[in-house]
Each structure stands twice: as structure tokens, then as C-alpha cells.
Amino acid sequence: MSGKFVTIDSRSVFMGGPGQGGGGAAGGNVLTEVGAEKVGKFESQYLGGLRDKEVAAAFDKDGEQIFRTSGSTDMVKFQEYQIAQMQDSILTHNHPVTGGSFSDSDIRLAIRGNVAEIRAVGSDGMGNHYAYSMTRPPDGWGPKEKYVGILGPASDTVKDKLWGEIKAGRMSPSMAEFNHNHETMKIIADAMGWNYSKKKIKVGFW
């Protein structure tokens, strides 16, 4: 975070080796049925096919787009007015490089912007596409400091587990890197009381 911009990125920290949000009514299904259909189509028909840049878009609960912005292959910058517009929105974006789950900066942005739900779309590089979701509970995201305190130990626990899988020949380094953020987010969501999910999706028009 620097100047008047805030960034999210899709970079994973796995290959380094073993080793305050407001309240609001949310949690569970944030989108209406119509909203879920609109956001789902945006993710599968547009975000899922992007490989050259990250794109982020905020929607209201009925799937009406509030704003859209784009960045580089692994980062999107947001201006302060866009962060203000995120309040109670559903913020979705793609991860064209790693294809995996949320990065640290994704979650920090969700807390700062007090979004109702943050989503990400990515691929494992083998033709499988996924939509990741983290929703704010009814009593809010909770303090950023608590999240930060959980992140390091959770990441280290997952790294150790995945390195064990690599050494045993049960997982490739690339697949371990892909899985790292997902496994870390599962631990964090459980500790913070957030609702986290990963769902396989189809990409393209059908």
C-alpha cells in the first residue's frame, strides 16, 4: 500500500520454503439469486478466460456492477474513492498467474473496504477453473491485527505439510504452490469465523 493507491495481487508466498473491518449484515449467501447468476456469468464468461491481466469488479447484491478496473498480470491498484465504493459490495477478480486462492493483500483489502464478500477466479493450469469466496460474518470481519497474527503461523503450517508431500513424491512443487493459499485460507477462515469456499466452475459461453 502506498500513496493514494491500494493494491491486491495474486502472488503466492509458498516457494519461500518451509518455514480492522466494520460491521454489517452479511455472511452466508450475500448475492440474491439474480445477482449470483450475473456475477457467475461475469466470472465464467469473462474473468476465467483472462490470462494477460488482473481485472477486478464490484457488484451490489443484485449483480449490478458498481465499478470495474484492471491492472498488470499479478496486481490491481484501487484509488481511495473505489475503496469507499466497495462498502458492502461483492468484489471479484481473477488470478491469471498463480490461479490459486486469496493472497494476503486480497484479504487486507476486503477488511479495509468492508466488502460483504471477496471472490477470486483462477485455474490450476490443467484445465480446471475455480471460484473462491470469502464472506463477512454478521458481526464484521473483525480486527485486522487478529488476522495478521493468524496468517504467519497458518502459512507456515501449510508450507510444512506441503513440503512433506513434495518430498514424499505425492505432489509436484507447482501443485503445492497452487494449493498453498487455499489451505491457508481454510485455517484462517475457521479461526476468524469467516465463510470460505472453493467451487469448480465452467469457463466460456454455453
| Share in helix | 25-40%
As a percent range, the share of strand residues is 15-25%
Shape: globular
Task: Name the CATH class of the domain at 5-12 and 23-141 and 194-201.
Answer: Alpha Beta
Average pLDDT rating: 87
CATH architecture call of the domain at 5-12 and 23-141 and 194-201: 3-Layer(aba) Sandwich
Radius of gyration of CA atoms, rounded to a whole number: 16 Å
* Content-based structural category: alpha+beta
> How many alpha or pi helices?
5
Give the strand order of the largest sheet, numbering strands 1, 2, ... along the chain: 3-2-5-6-7-8
Major β-sheet profile = 6 strands, mixed
The first-to-last residue Cα distance is 39 Å
CATH fold naming of the domain at 5-12 and 23-141 and 194-201: Cytidine Deaminase, domain 2
Helices and strands, in N-to-C order?
A: EHEEEHEHEEHHE
